[in-house]
Amino acid sequence: MPRVKLPRKSTAIDMTAMCDVAFLLLSFFILTTKFKPSEALAVVTPSSVSSKAAESKDVVLVTIDPKGKVYFSVSDDAPKKEIFEAVNTSRNLGLTSGEIANLSSVNVPFIGVPFSQLKSLASKNKDEFKGVNWPGIPVLDTLNNELTDWVAAAVSAFQGQKMALQVKGDNDAKYPSFQAVIRAFKKNDQLKFQMITNAEGVPEGTELYKKNMSNMAAGKSASAE
Amino acid sequence: MAEMDTSGGGGHKKGPGVKKGKKLSTRVDLTPMVDLGFLLITFFIFTTTMSQPTAMKLNLPKDTDKPEEQNKAKESGALTLLLGGKDMVYYYEGILAPDGSNFKSTTFKDVRDVILTKKKSTKPDDFVVVIKANADATYKNTVDILDEMTINDVKRYALVDIFDVENQLIKATEGSAAK
Questions:
Q1: Which of A224, B101, B137, B138 is the most exposed place for a label (fewest CB within 10 A)?
Q2: How many angstroms separate the CA atoms of A134 and A42, rounded?
Q3: Which residues in chain A touch residue B139, judged by CB atoms under 8 angstroms apart?
Q4: What is the SS3 string spanning A54-72?
Q5: Distance CA A165, CA A167 (A)
Q6: CATH dotted code for B74-178
Q7: What is the pTM of this model?
Q8: Which one of B89, B139, B146, B153 would you mutate to disrupt binding with A, by most A Cβ within 10 Å of its Cβ?
């Protein structure tokens, strides 16, 4: 019997479709990537099982660096100018309107000095903020916790609007700083706040894990608040 | 897609005298381009940190001097966790004995068992965890222990200032452990 001749087929595949997919994915990834804004304060946050994303609007952020120094900053959409005006009047700092304008501009990304040095901070540029050894806001003295004034200023500037009070602490920061921050919040009756953390998986077999599993089975979104 | 129709003229036959131009294939080998594309994708995936910061909520109790407004904790259901330096956790159940006999130490790895054991042995309504940290505890320890509350589904817990007695006990335990 004569063998059936199989037509020889070329092994070259049309790569066009694959190329399209590859570059589509590539452009998707490039466009969706948000670059981390370079932060003048290097803080490594601890991780928690909380899966709620941190709020990014109307943020009043208190940062604690590895040495336990405390910094105060607000997001750009917050009423920065009003905060500085409120601090100016409550502590009699004698800042001019020009200094307040500069302090509330992008030139000053965060406050890490006592009130006495705030005037010199007003002349600084954004580029001068990197690599400076800041003294931090004095908080450890319970009688003169300057963060209390900052939080009070923020509360009055927001005028009862919703503000997201956040604490971002470094792994190595010692507890007294955090305790002082809590005290400053408490004095202003700000009893709810958020702590910025990295996401972490829920350990298997724990109660939260079981709860999330049963929630998922029931069709609800598993969220760990 | 990568080829173009070069035959022209809608495909009808040309006359016998018309010379045909040599057909050059416009087909390009796209394999290296695909390679490049995927290489870039891999690069972007690996360099992107997907971790969006998450937020952990914490509600503080109101400071009050009036005893009727203070939250009461039953002694039998209370578990006090003390955070010390070097990632150590000290704990006692109920009220601290004057001689410190119910003062025990553990680590962050084993503290879950301590919490769960206490949780199982008490009525859910009475169970309350009191967290106190001393000056040597780090912020990470604090967040970890609060996280532990979420993980173990502890409904009632409070972050309270440490007492001197407890501080001294921690110091004494740390001192004896070092010897």
A1: B101
A2: 13
A3: 46, 64, 169-175, 177-178
A4: CCCCCEEEEEECCCCCEEE
A5: 7
A6: 3.30.420.270
A7: 0.70
A8: B139
User: Strand B88-93's sheet: what is its strand order?
Assistant: B104-107, B88-93, B78-83, B128-133, B157-160
A193 and B58 within 8 Å at the Cβ level: the answer is yes
Q: B83 and B132 in contact (C-beta within 8 Å)?
A: yes
Q: Which residues contact B140 (CB under 8 A, 6 or more apart)?
A: A46, A171, A172
**CA pair distance A156, B125, nearest whole angstrom:** 38
- Strand, coil or helix: B163: coil
In terms of CA atoms, which chain A residue is nearest residue B50? A33
Reduce the DSSP state of residue B159 to 3 states and report it.
strand
The length of chain A in residues reads: 225
Q: Mark which residues 35-94 of B lie under 8 Å from A by CB.
A: 37-38, 40-41, 44-45, 48-49, 51-63, 83
Q: Which residues of B touch A148 (CB under 8 A)?
A: none
DSSP string, B79-137: EEEEE-STTEEEEEESSPPTT-TT-EEEETTTHHHHHHHHHHHS-TTT-EEEEEE-TT-
The lowest-confidence range among A14-23, A98-107, A196-205, B31-40 is A98-107
Contact A172 B139 (CB under 8 A): yes
Searching chain B, which residue's CA lies closest to the CA of residue A208? B151
CB contact under 8 A, B55 and A50: yes
Strands B88-93 and B78-83: antiparallel
pLDDT in tens, A162-171: 778 888 888 8
Q: Name the strand (E) or helix (H) holding A166.
A: strand A164-169
CA distance B153 to B155: 6
Domain ranges of chain B: 74-178
Per-residue model confidence as pLDDT tens digits over A47-78: 778 777 777 778 888 888 888 788 888 877 77
